[in-house]
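[agent] plan:
  1. take the single chain provided in the ticket
  2. run structure prediction with default settings
  3. attach structure tokens to the ticket
  4. add a short note for the reviewer (M.T.)
[agent] executing step 1
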Amino acid sequence: MILLTHTGEKVVDIVDLNNNKPISIDVKNPAKALLDLAKNYQERILIWAHTSQKENINIEGVKASFYLKNMMLSFSNHQYLPEQIGYVEDSPFLKVNKKVKYPTWLMSSNVGAIHASQLLKFENKVKLNLPFDFVLNSMAKLGMPNGLFCYSEPKLLLENNIGFNLPKASTVQLFMFVKQHYKGIWSLLFPLNFMVFEKRFPILTFIRTILVKKHKFSSNFDLQPLEKQSQNIDNITIDVIIPTLGRKAFLHDVLLDLEKQTLLPQQVIIIEQNEDENSTTELNFISNKTWPFKIVHKFIHQTGACNARNLALKEVISDYVFFADDDIRFPTNFIEVSLYKMRRHQFDAVTLSCLQKKDKKTHLKPIQWSTFGSGCSIVKSECLKNLTFDMNYEFGFGEDADFGMQLRKKGIDIIYLHEPEIEHLKAPIGGFRKPHEHIWAKYGDKPKPSPTITFYKLMHQTKKQLKGYKMVLFFKFYLVQSIKNPFKYYKTFKKQWRQSVYWANQMIDK
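[agent] step 2 finished; step 3 output follows
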């Protein structure tokens, strides 16, 4: 490892931590100096730190946290980009839990690390003469969708409460960042958010950045362990949990696929639901055949996927859990290949590609995923301790995304794997169902959006993100609803939004 210390604007010194010898370099710009180091030491981990943190760096923490080449780590209690970036970023990567290793592209000059070979991929792709923090955030923002795994990692420092006055991006730099890293429409909505929510009119700033061009970046980051990891999965066990309702034939096919696996599950936990109190199970094939795994079958008269999955989680005994749907198909080596990849790359939670035959796969490499698929994911069982699907989402929207956020807040990142693939049959709704009437449908104006969506955003996103979402929803909904008088529509929208926030807060106060 090589350590570069800086003042923010200038390099102070560079030390080879393998032999504690200084490295001489003429470049004083920290970003340019890092790139020069990367060219000369392509197989080394490069660490940067503000000079005030030099004695506070946790070298062992860096080693423990940096186990893949395609990683970029950083930590600071302060954020370079102002919270207004939330107006254009609707992702789980902004509201960072500073107590754990958390996925985010928000980087800092305070302390950080990247593998030299991965840093070289940004050569001639970002402007190195901009502030160091700007450059670091730009690299992470560009790299993350292309397979660079970016994290806030508190283990980089011995004491995380030691700080100094880190720089903040100016309004011009913020607008420049938005122009360089987001679609053009956001450059128009961004100043509008300032005017509506901040009562500021950054017209001159908008004009100053109007000629700034969007970055074009595409690269393959190396998903390669720095050291050889255990790849033996002979003694690894996995349980499969499947909620089902009236899809007998489809579920039977899922069990047949599981029966053919090159690595068999230890348990298949099936929660069958039918709200008719006089009903009996449809799944006779469970007991009419000898299966090569234990089947835990619970037949209940309460419908709802959240409740069903929570009941299934209580029955888990294996090392890993495959969260499955009852209308999917997968190849015979699906479990074996998935667990092999998870072990090799130290992934604790993955969501697998799950598409219909007619769908085109858009992600062709492993990346940090922004949600969680409750019907196509595998998670290490120890990571699920004290986690449940929030019943506030039952018969609503957002339980998958919320469960993913619960994992992230525990320090468990969710990685999307494009292979092996799951085919989603998208079976017709089966069984006896009646429309669920939420309590908010009985009182006052119809909430917009669904209160469960607002509940998710209040729980897991920043205030600026919620306001940015409100702005987008305002325009999107106007295009599809019947009220075309803009003043009448605005009045109606405010009432519906207020109702949504009210009912979301009722869920929080439960």
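[agent] step 4 note for reviewer: Residues 354 and 422 are 5 Å apart (CA to CA).
[agent] ticket updated
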